[in-house]
Structures are given as structure tokens and as C-alpha cells.
Amino acid sequence: MRLRQDRVELSVAATATGLSGPPAHLALALGLHDRYVINAVAGHTRVLSYGLTGSFDPNTGEPAEEPTGETHPTIRGIRAGLDHFDASQVGVELHLQAGIPRGRGLGATSAGILAGLVAAHGLLDVPVEPQLVTELAVSLGAERVRVQAALAGGVVVALDPERPALSLRPRPELAPVAFVPDFARVGELPSPARLSLEAAGREAARLAWLALLLGNGDLPVELLLAATEDPVLLPAWAGAVPASHALIGWLRENGVVATLTGTGPTVLSLTAVSETLREAARRSGWHVMETEAASTALRCDFAPKL
After folding, report:
1. Is the pLDDT of residue 296 over 90?
2. pTM score, two decimals?
3. GHMP kinase N-terminal domain: which residues (predicted)?
């Protein structure tokens, strides 16, 4: 198969996973985007990245450095996409305007891999098949539910790889704000203790309640505070993300629906946060990033057929 275009522009949204539930099964697409301009060139591959403010290495807390050349997630995605269609490889010039903080639990790596795979479809002018793209992305190290949320937008609940994910339009009252720290985790995240049958039943009911509340505007938004009360994972992870744990407790004491996204350290509020609380968080070293629940997470200049 031959390339039919030599330039593709697209953007992919950040994703918050877990929301005080198992990180691998629920995701919300956010209004923070990485924007890509991808040119097929005759020369060597190069990556030009901009806007990495607020991005930090998850282990050291130092400012993140974007991978370059063939190691970049988007370049790896392009290569895998071209290989899948038996297309010839080409040099790539990638311009990335980074809007998703790196190493902060907001899905930057998964977004980059997905962008590369979708870009390969654009260069070849072939329809994007969500299931195929998802499987290819997972094989490259992306998180399945993040890819599904970035493709579909809104709220995604995934049961297992053999069944399609459930996609819900986010309720209009959601007003997410991301609190992104500039420091590293203290230690490794431990696995929580095995739940009793009764406790597992309560967790299943709470997560079902959470999914309904995120995607159903007819239910009281106030119930989100109870639905995001995590008695299992967050206490187990408190030693590894103590600042995140403390911020969640403080925000919730002030009536804000705050949770950990993924394994942290970013804290995400799902409801409005007053300027007083925002300023106090900034003084404590948090980057306060305004966002939204994104109904459309993938934007392309070549109108892919999904």
C-alpha cells in the first residue's frame, strides 16, 4: 500500500482513569489535548516538541524530557500502523504541541501511541477501525481503556478485552479541574489486600453508581461525593502519594468531588472548585489546570471514518 497524503494534523485528549475505582476499567476523556502535525519526508525522522510545562518524570520529579526519533510513542505508532498495512516506511517530521502533562497519570503515552496509529491511517487514507487501532495500541504499551476513551470521548467503562466498552456522554454538570504536582511519588504503589465477598459486592455497587452518575444528568450530582469515596485503593496508596492523598481529603472536606486519576499523582476534581481553594493549592506547589469532560476526544484534519 502506498501513502496518499504526506501531511496529517490531529489532536488526542488526556484521559483520567479509575476515578476512585480500578484504574483499568473506567476512563473519562478530558479537555487537555496533545496536538500533532505529522509530515512524511524523504530525510531522517525528527521530533520537535513544545509546551511541556507542568510535565515531570514520575520517579524523580524532574522536568520531563520528550523521547526523540524512533523511540517516541507517536513514531512507534506510525511505524506499527504502516507495517500493519504493508506500507513502505518513510521519514517522519513530527511537531508536537504538548497539552497533556507527562508522567502525571493523564495518559500522555497512550495518547501518543494512538496519535501515531491514527496518523498512519490518515497518511494511507484508510478508515480507522476502533477495535483494530485499540489492539495495536495495547500491543505497543498503551492502556486499553485510555485508548477507548480517547477514541470515543466522554465516559468509557470497559469490562474485558472480549467485549466492547460502554461509552456514555458525560453529564453537563461535570467541571473537571486537574491538580498536577511537580514532585515525585515517595515509593512504589502497594497492592491492596484481597477484599471479602461482602466488601467486593459493595465496591461493585459503588462503581456501578459512579458510572451512572458520570453519564446521567437526571441524577443528583451531589451523590458523586459518595460514589467516589474509595475505602480500598486510596488508603493503600497513601504512603506512595501522601501529598495527593492529603489534597483529596482537604478538597472533599470542602465539598469538592476530588479523586486520584490512575495511580496518580494528579488529583482530579469533578465539580467546580472555588478560586480560594485553587489559590491555596497553587501556594502548596500544585499546577491547577482548567479542563472539561470532552465529548469528542479525537480530532483529525482528514475526517477518519470511525
Report:
1. no
2. 0.91
3. 84-146
